[in-house]
Amino acid sequence: MGLSTRKTYSVSDMIEQKSKKSLNHATEKAIPWILFAIAGVSVLTTIGIVLTLIFETITFFSRVSFFDFLAGTEWYPFSSNSPSYGILPLISGTLKITGIAVLVAVPIGLASAIYLSEYATDRSRRIIKPILEILAGIPTIVYGFFALTFVTPVLQSFIPELKIFNALSPGIVVGVMIIPMIASLSEDAMSSVPNSIREGALAIGATKFEVAIKVVLPAAVSGIVASVVLAISRAIGETMIVTVAAGATPNLTLDVTGSIQTMTAYIVQVSTGDAGYGTTIYYSIYAVGFTLFVFTLAMNLLAQYISKRFREEY
């Protein structure tokens, strides 16, 4: 019968173990506060940005009529005689770029998502999806010069009246830029649809294409619509492509062949030093920025609402 052994501890060992337990306990209590402080930085930063926009915008509206800003059809802030601050031409230019981008990105993005989700093999998906997402990593300034030096000359061979600065070329390139967002998020939404639904549709005689269009697509509609809305929000806020290739002429027209100016392009123009600090033109960039903020916030809230309202639970 073996002798049982008992491990003995010295007083110093017991004190060391006690101090380690106390240290671990103190660390565990401190970690939530550290994480809370880190999370609070982003919240405080957001609040600071919004408050800055609000205060500077209020200063602008103390000098310019709110009604003239929203309903005005002319935007000539640099006019020495009678400057005009009607934002509708800038909104018109922004919406033209966004509309063209959506017309390009949605069909291509959804077609790519359907292929990746329903037709591509695992090996093809692992190759194609990363290559597609490379488009999202290209700097937008590169896209801008691509639109100006390549896309515009190509389009001019088909549309002779197309100006060197226009809405069509940057709109197409912005659409190319947001394709990965629509394709990737839509593919994720379609891939989350259970295979049992596909198998049931195939069992009753549906073709693979019919399953994709009439079964999988409606089942993933919340994620697809949310991806499109988020892509639209991204297109509205695009800066460098439109700054380089769209021009700087705010026009309230439906023409896409001539020079335009978007809200973001105007902010860039003034931020490069065209206006002195404290002038009305200087404060106008905050008013335009706040308008842009309202647009993007509305789109993000719409995407969240659609995602929750039409979400399918499996």
List keywords for this structure.
single chain, 314 residues, mainly alpha, MetI-like fold, 2 domains, two-stranded antiparallel sheet, 12 helices, globular, disordered N terminus
Task: Explain the overall architecture.
With 314 residues, the chain is mostly helical. It is built from twelve helices and two strands, in the order ααββαααααααααα. 72% of the residues lie in helices and 1% in strands. It has a two-stranded antiparallel sheet with strand order 1-2.
End-to-end distance, in Å?
61 Å
CATH superfamily of the largest domain: MetI-like
Helix content range: over 70%
Strand percent estimate:
under 5%
CATH architecture of the largest domain: Orthogonal Bundle
What would CATH call the class of the largest domain? Mainly Alpha
For the largest sheet, list the strands in their spatial order. 1-2
What gross morphology would you assign? globular
Task: State mean pLDDT (0 to 100 scale).
Answer: 83
Domains, number: 2
Name the assembly state.
single chain
Provide the low-confidence segments as ranges.
1-5
